[in-house]
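Project outcomes to date are best conveyed with an example. Our students and postdoctoral researchers have been running inverse folding experiments weekly, and each run begins with a structure described purely in tokens. The record below, which covers 212 residues, was selected by the lab manager from last quarter's runs and is presented without edits.
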């Protein structure tokens, strides 16, 4: 049996298995997309670049107004402050927080991907993006302080704790018009441009320059 055929059989079996477990259809399709893409992040389990590109093409075809939210976690601060394993725990914490907030305040079609090592992109309907960003910053800034204390206790057993600032996140919101062609490269470019509008703050920040 060819690799393509065996993968098709595996997808069909997964589809039937998930339906039998009373999973919702959107939830089933999300898991199927992960399997097809084969690029789920090993740490967080979230979709990667391939699945994100597929989702962006699908959203373009739907011709509905959407937003992309680029979430930037300061990897250098995480690694220097908490070490390799501690930094990974911060990344996992961030992924779970984003997924839970998107599930609670987002729509059924909203999508979350883990790109690079420490950054995320959420594809959200425009009317929900404000609530998503506000809740993310509120809960992240509150919880990261407790998590920082936990990591401090773990690290202090073996080495001197690095007095760096907390790893606050930066969120960059990019608007897309109906039917506008979008891809990961374009999102990264726009997020890079929005970084120039960031201002120093004692906490996480969100930059959104709505399109005219």
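After processing, the design step wrote out the following sequence:
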């Amino acid at each position: 049996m060819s690799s393509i055929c065996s993968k098709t059989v595996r997808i069909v079996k997964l589809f039937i298995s998930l339906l039998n477990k009373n999973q919702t259809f959107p939830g089933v399709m999300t898991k199927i997309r992960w399997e097809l893409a084969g690029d789920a992040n090993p740490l967080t389990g979230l979709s990667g670049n391939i699945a994100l590109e597929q989702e962006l093409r699908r959203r373009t075809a739907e011709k509905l107004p959407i937003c992309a939210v680029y979430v930037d976690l300061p990897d250098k601060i995480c690694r220097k402050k908490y070490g390799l394993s501690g930094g990974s725990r911060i990344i996992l914490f961030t992924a779970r927080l984003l997924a839970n907030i998107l599930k609670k305040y987002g729509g059924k079609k909203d999508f979350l991907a883990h790109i690079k090592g420490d950054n995320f992109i959420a594809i959200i309907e425009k009317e929900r993006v404000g609530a998503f960003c506000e809740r993310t910053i509120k809960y992240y800034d509150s919880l990261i302080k407790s998590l920082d204390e936990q990591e401090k206790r773990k690290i202090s057993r073996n080495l001197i704790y690095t007095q760096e600032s907390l790893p606050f996140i930066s969120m960059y919101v990019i608007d897309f018009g109906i039917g506008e062609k979008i891809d990961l490269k374009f999102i990264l470019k726009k997020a890079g441009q929005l970084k120039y509008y960031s201002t120093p703050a004692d906490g996480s920040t969100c930059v959104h320059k709505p399109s005219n």
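Residues 60 and 100 are 25 Å apart (CA to CA). The first strand starts at residue 66 and ends at 72. The training component of this project remains on track.
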